[in-house]
Amino acid sequence: MRVRYLLGLAAFVAAAVAGLRLVAVGADASSHREAPLISQDPAVDNVDTYVFRTSDAPGTVTFVATWYPFMEPTGGPNFYRFDPSARYNINIDRDGDGIEDIIYRWEFSNQTVNGGTFLYNTGPMTAINSSAYNLRQYYTVTEIISGGPTTVLFANQLMIPENVGPRSNPNYAQLRNQAIRVGTFGGDTIREFTGPRDDPFFVDVGSIFDLGGLRPLNQFHLIKLPNFKGIDSTAGFNVLANVIQVPITRVVTPGCNLNNVTDTKCTIGVWATAERRAVRTFNPNGTISDSGGYVQVSRLGMPLVNEVVIDLARKDLFNASRPFQDVTLFGDRVLTSELASLMPVLYPGAVVSTPVTNRNDLLAIFATGLNLPALGITGGYNNQQQLSPTKPSEQIRINLAVPPSAPVGQGKRLGILDGDLAGFPNGRRLEDDVVDIELRAVAGVFYKLVNPSAPDYNVFPNNALTDGVDRNDKEFLTTFPYLADPWDGYYRIHQNQYQTQAASSFLNAAGW
Length: 512
Ligand SMILES: [Ca+2]
Ligand SMILES: [Ca+2]
Ligand SMILES: [Ca+2]
Ligand SMILES: [Ca+2]
Hints:
This protein is an alpha+beta fold.
């Protein structure tokens, strides 16, 4: 029995560790990410993907892809940049076949203004094109429409520098505003921003790594500890971000009626990918050259899928695969939830056991989109019923006919679970607490919505599972690009988060 428990714990931890796709706290960001190969290649490692309707810009949708997990703000003198040998994509499927119909693509090039110094910047950077900005990166954004035109939206744009500190960046907000690109294409206004940002994701991965612990529920755990507030493990870390905002009519199936939430033409699916060239050569003079065709090395739509749903043996394959292949390659993993079987083991006598097999509620959330007649929405909520039968594939689905419910960053963190139909899993907003929502989803709180005649698992504590971290550590911006400015290297002290959030007994236990 004891061996079985330990095996269960080990499996849960493996799932949870990989599950939150974030690395252990450390500047090298080299471990614990969701798949073996991508964990060695952080510059092309997707951190998160977001898509939401934008309340401050009516009629638009905003897409966000973040990269480079746990970017340490003090990481000079080279700091962090996108990889010029890779290309970064946000993919949109508008008919539900698992094949992208629109791609927004970012490609990069580097420039060193003065190679005779080791400095990232040679003085204060008071404007984005300051001559003191030495290690520069430029980027081009292209829109590729399947069967339609390819349009260069923004060519050779200078990327905003890192937030080095108050001497180097006396007014970072000013630089950020200079780095917002705006263009008009066929009458459509498109906004774009690329560069370092505060990581908008929030999670207590430090506790979850420790045998699946949820600090506020420590007394329910198999191995009890005093209850505590959650601690945001990503607090004070940055990511690299691509943010693009376009009119909804540019990305949905033509004819979508945005005043009709039952119009399936208004639902799209979204995921981000990174691609590298097939061959890399390390040259004797210290340079690297890449050649050959592009190969996909990273993929991220819905949070947690490659981490908890896909088994270790196929995680690298998932990163190389495309949504239309999901049923063939991973179909056996979708309807059976390994994590659901482990929750009652880890929280014995507390978490109510939920079905492990035939989890069509999880299939709907992750792979087909939801129908919610129980909430009075008939004709589909965010499933893509343009195909019959619906073809399952893992994407973030969003019904863009659902209007925004709040200013950007201020929706209800539990989204649909709190009656906010504009929130996760209808798209994904910055403020959506996807860790809590997905913990509760695995614990069955959506089960009865999808299976009306089934028992109700939306009961305590299944519907109260939480890591205790409810929001980001920085306020989101109320206007584009919404993600908060990156933490700077000078003022960053990671211990601050513990000292402001933890109880004195916790600090004593930690030896502070
Ligand atoms: Ca990743
Ligand atoms: Ca398609
Ligand atoms: Ca943050
Ligand atoms: Ca949370």
